[in-house]
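F.,

This is the one I mentioned.
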């Protein structure tokens, strides 16, 4: 059951607000015109004089319009979900648009106490421990999340799954959007650094994880003097099994690449379906060592005017991998570079120096590359690319990869401004590119099949809106699909500087909402949202009605890890404590306002597996469970069975209790775990 207000109510409210806004626009001249306060007409039904409020706060007519466009009255739901990378927090943020309210933080690569993620469930760290071990043998507990990717069907977001990568450790996570929980983490078997992920192919057959910093593949050692011989880049294609909701490692593979630093990638769509494009930097193969008198990386990697756009024939690569033309590195199949070349599944196209983003247009026809050291975006044509591949080339790079002719593949270049990074799209034939150095969003018109959609001449800068400040990625509604919406754009700004009240030297991120619904030069900033967490990188925005999230788990006893009823789920009336030698299994139920059993008596040295079923069916009737001293906390949502295990290493009396304020008698929702000392164990229970 949705809690949306009846559809008539918001219309009435909006009408009244618009009327108020109009009056205010007339009455309020500009900021600081406080002397005009109170001059506006009284509005029937309004409890306060809107003009007086606006004047007292120094709000302009534009401010009032922005407020009316973004304000969500209590109980009204947002039109869109934005899934934003949580950057160094290792998590994902779910934000409602246009209100910019945070709806959830999804625990992904980092322990999250409220959700009980990493605090005892399914062993000590749960899903988190799937993601490989840190150098000290313990689980990795942080990540640098970069690019979330929604699952697609036919090139459109389908609202079923979300994927995200960890640049710091080369991992990929799978989140199920029925319960907004992380189900799987895979560690890249051959490298420790990724960036060009995650991107999906148009039916989510493959999840693309492009590399970043070249290194000896398979976590091997080789000194930097052997860079050209031993260091390599890579791209990994993870096979996604939609039925199981999991990456199938056994059907996944990678391709060995030259030791350039592969950067962002994007999948082809429609005409370019079956192809993937990745940028690269440092085709100079600079190896740094500024302390030894070498050029520093940032200048060494910027010597050449051109780097290489990597073009992958994915269908061909899948065939080659399936035919076993691979070498195993850490038990993972890798297509050797020479095979990739001889089988014609890898081509290079020169691209202006040190590019960052490559983005494929909604029709799949153009690949837009933004070079951060070049004021232009370069538009490549997929048709021309196919002609160039068919015509062949005798030019190669140092490793024998065929290099196609830049002029033969390029469609056009458009000058936008300083520091262009990433490009997104709308439904009006416009592209939007973030300009890092200009701190602006550029709107420009596309050509080709998009030319008819607006009155602006093709391939032209239309307008720029300043943003605050240093924008990285930007994200438009349904912006990576074959049919973008053209409603909202979020500028993901790296620096906030003066936008918010001071909170010490570490400032929040600034997400700014832009209204891109009007064509031409109108593209106002409506809202600044402070995000108090790591640098979020990228986000995707999906229409809210595509998300089919469960209100409660479908059946009582549900195991979210298998997305089915758990055969071990405790049932009401059958709660028990079962002993088998030193192994103890607890079957417990939770309902407002008690746990059953309320006494659990075990012995020091026991290994304990503890199941709790929340038998509630009411929306939001979540219980939490903790045992002091044992660092255990789980969240048990309606219908869920949670399982955790621990060794009873410390004897004593432990008051377990419900951590969610679930009812008036929530404080009484507790019990005692009695762990007898070993020397009294013979007295038993
Ligand atoms: Cu259950 Cu508080």
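My design for it:
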């Amino acid at each position: 059951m949705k809690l949306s207000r009846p559809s008539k109510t918001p219309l009435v409210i909006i009408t009244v607000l618009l009327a108020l806004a109009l009056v205010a626009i007339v009455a309020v001249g500009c900021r600081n015109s406080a002397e005009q306060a109170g001059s506006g007409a009284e509005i029937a039904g309004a409890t306060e004089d809107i003009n007086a409020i606006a004047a007292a706060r120094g709000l302009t007519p534009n401010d009032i319009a922005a407020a009316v466009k973004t304000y969500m009255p209590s109980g009204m739901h947002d039109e869109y979900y934005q899934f934003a990378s949580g950057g160094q927090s290792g998590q994902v943020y779910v934000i409602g648009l246009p209100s910019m309210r945070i709806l959830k933080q999804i625990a992904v690569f980092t322990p999250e106490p409220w959700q009980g993620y990493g605090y005892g469930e399914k062993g000590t760290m749960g899903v988190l421990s799937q993601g490989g071990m840190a150098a000290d043998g313990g689980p990795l507990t942080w990540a640098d999340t970069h690019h979330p990717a929604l699952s697609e069907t036919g090139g459109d977001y389908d609202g079923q799954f979300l994927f995200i990568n960890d640049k710091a450790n080369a991992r990929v996570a799978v989140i199920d959007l029925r319960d907004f929980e992380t189900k799987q983490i895979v560690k890249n078997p051959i490298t420790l650094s990724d960036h060009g992920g995650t991107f999906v192919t148009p039916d989510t057959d493959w999840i693309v994880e492009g590399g970043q910093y070249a290194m000896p593949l398979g976590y091997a050692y080789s000194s930097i003097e052997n860079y050209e011989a031993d260091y390599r880049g890579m791209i990994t294609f993870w096979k996604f099994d939609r039925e199981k909701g999991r990456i199938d490692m056994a059907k996944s593979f990678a391709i060995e690449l030259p030791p350039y630093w592969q950067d962002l990638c994007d999948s082809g769509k429609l005409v370019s379906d079956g192809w993937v494009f990745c940028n690269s930097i440092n085709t100079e193969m600079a190896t740094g060592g500024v302390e030894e008198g070498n050029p520093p990386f940032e200048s060494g990697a910027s010597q050449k005017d051109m780097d290489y756009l990597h073009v992958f024939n994915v269908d061909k690569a899948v065939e080659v991998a399936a035919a076993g033309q691979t070498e195993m590195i850490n038990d993972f199949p890798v297509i050797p570079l020479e095979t990739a070349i001889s089988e014609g599944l890898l081509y290079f196209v020169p691209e202006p120096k040190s590019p960052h983003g490559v983005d494929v247009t909604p029709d799949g026809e153009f690949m837009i590359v933004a070079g951060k050291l070049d004021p232009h975006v370069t538009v490549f044509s997929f048709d021309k690319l196919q002609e160039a591949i068919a015509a062949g080339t005798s030019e190669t790079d140092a490793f024998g990869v065929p290099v196609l002719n830049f002029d033969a593949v390029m469609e056009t270049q458009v000058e936008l401004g300083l520091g262009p990074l990433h490009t997104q799209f709308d439904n009006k034939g416009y592209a939007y590119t973030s300009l890092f150095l200009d701190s602006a969003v550029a709107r420009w018109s596309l050509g080709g099949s998009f030319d008819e959609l607006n009155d602006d001449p093709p391939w032209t800068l239309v307008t720029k809106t300043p943003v605050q400040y240093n924008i990285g990625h930007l994200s438009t509604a349904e912006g990576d699909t074959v049919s973008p919406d053209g409603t909202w754009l979020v500028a993901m700004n790296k620096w906030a500087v003066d936008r918010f009240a001071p909170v010490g030297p570490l400032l929040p991120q600034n997400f700014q909402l832009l209204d891109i619904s009007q064509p031409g030069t109108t593209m106002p900033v409506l809202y600044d949202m402070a995000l108090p967490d790591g640098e979020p990188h990228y986000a995707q925005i999906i229409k809210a009605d595509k998300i089919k999230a469960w209100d409660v788990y479908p059946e009582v006893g549900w195991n979210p890890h298998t997305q089915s009823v758990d055969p071990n789920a405790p049932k009401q009336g059958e709660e028990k404590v079962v002993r088998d030698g030193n192994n103890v299994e607890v079957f417990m139920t939770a309902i407002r306002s008690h746990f059953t059993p309320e006494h659990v008596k075990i012995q020091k040295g026991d290994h304990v597996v503890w199941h709790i079923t929340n038998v509630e069916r009411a929306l939001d009737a979540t219980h939490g469970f903790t045992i002091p001293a044992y660092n255990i906390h789980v969240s048990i949502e309606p219908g869920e069975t949670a399982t955790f295990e621990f060794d009873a290493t410390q004897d004593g009396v432990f008051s377990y209790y419900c951590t969610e304020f679930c009812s008036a008698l929530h404080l009484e929702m507790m019990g005692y775990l009695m762990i007898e000392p070993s020397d009294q164990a013979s007295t038993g229970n």
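The two ends are 46 Å apart (CA to CA).

Talk soon.
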